[in-house]
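testing teh design pipeline on a random one, pls ignore if ur not involved
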């Protein structure tokens, strides 16, 4: 039983590190990382904001800056996605 708990902790630690490395390498969003790893946005967010600080503080500081930048421009991305959606709708009519 105790070995199973350690295995689970190790698996979570590996996932957190992998997701963080992917986000940093690709300068991507929580949403795209979640899609890549097949997990929910909530899980990615919890991994990055809560767990990563305990696992690797230097990686946490590095990704924190990227996450803040993503948050500051998310309204622009959302507006662009809406513009493209309606441009596509009007193109087909």
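output:
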């Amino acid at each position: 039983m105790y070995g199973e708990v350690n295995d689970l902790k190790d698996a979570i630690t590996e996932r957190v590190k992998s997701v963080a490395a992917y986000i940093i390498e690709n300068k991507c969003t929580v949403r795209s990382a979640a899609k890549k790893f097949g997990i929910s946005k909530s899980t990615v967010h919890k991994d990055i904001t809560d767990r990563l600080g305990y696992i690797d503080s230097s990686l946490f500081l590095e990704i924190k800056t990227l996450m803040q930048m993503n948050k500051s421009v998310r309204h622009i991305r959302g507006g662009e996605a809406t513009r493209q959606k309606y441009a596509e709708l009007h193109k087909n009519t």
